[in-house]
Amino acid sequence: MALDIFSPDGLFNISTTRFTIINSYSTKGLSNNTGTVPADITFPAATLPTLTLGDLNIHHITSDPLRVFKEAELATSTPYFARATELGFSLLNTLGVFTRFSMSLIGRPDVLDLAFACPLLAPYFTEWSDPLPSPGSDHIPILPRFEAPLFPAAPPSPNWALTDWPTLESSRKATTISCAPPLPTTRSLDVWFKTNIERVTAQLALHIQLKRVTYRSKPWWLELLSMLSKAYNCALRSLKRDCFDAALLASTRSARSAYFKEIQRAKRDHLSSFLASATPQTAWTSKKFAVRRPPLLFPELLGATTHTELNKALLDHVFPGEPTRDFNTILLPFGNCPELATDEISRALARSSL
User: Fold this and answer.
1) For the chain, how many structural domains are there in total?
2) 3-42 as b/e, with b when 16 or more CB fall inside 10 Å?
3) 141 and 241, same domain (yes or no)
4) 35-42 LR contacts (CB < 8 Å, sep 24+)
5) Model confidence at 180, in pLDDT bands (50, 70, 90)?
6) Domain presence at residue 271
7) Residue 232's domain spans which residues?
8) Mean pLDDT, the chain, whole residue set
9) Are residues 193 and 70 in the same domain?
10) Which of 47, 82, 278, 339 has CB atoms 3.0–4.6 Å from 286's, for a disulfide?
């Protein structure tokens, strides 16, 4: 059984948003050296991140290094592990951890449940463990864990909007660049270039502020909002220490109102300036800001528009009433049958009561 699972964008850092899980259950085939599920089906050529797992009923030294194997066991398992090695599949099992414990006293533990990851999925594998309790079967639950890598944060970039250009221009003119050596060598030229570039970089670092743009960055955020947020949080902490103080309650409410009103004003100003300076490259972003997101409404069901009609439609759909019976289909007594006498009924009841 194979499942194609859709994942959020960017989970595997590739162009696809899907990965495949192949769940295989294989037993001994017609001969002792083959399985019911062939190796090429268990391990296909993967073009997507693929996880192959299941009860393969094979024994191999790679998964159970402390076991003494028979020739027939190695002959059955070798095609599977050779196919996995050829396609680059990695075994995820922790070596030496048994996955099956026999319910009888004469059986020995085995490693029958195996998990393999293709080269596109193996870099995201973090853990293979068995922390779950036994479900009552001879096989124990296995928990393989995959995690998306933590991508490094974007490096800080200059914030040109807050740059003091007049001061920077005057500082740039005052910075002198030394002349290159008349007979340069490789070492002297490197020293001259490094000295002058550090001098210019130091002057730029004094007058240019840096910013680090992340997915949480808000282009409409202002320094005033930071000050109002600190004032509101300070008043809120004071109110939590003394919740019965009427003056603290009034000051907290006013600080909250001023903070959220200023947020709405900053958003409106940013939207107005963005739409006023829109370019053909930002047409779709401008349309998204202008149209805004539609409200989340509950879909109509069976033509129900009001809350009462919607409630009745859901109840009728989930809890349908008992169907009405057609009494005309009930068998009626035959009209030409002789009636039962009283003594016949008495004799029948007396025999049943014994």
Assistant:
1) 3
2) eeeeeeeebbeeeeeebbbbebebeeeeeebebebebeeb
3) no
4) 35/76, 35/80, 39/79, 39/80, 39/82, 39/83, 40/83, 42/80, 42/83
5) confident
6) yes
7) 223-291
8) 80
9) no
10) 278
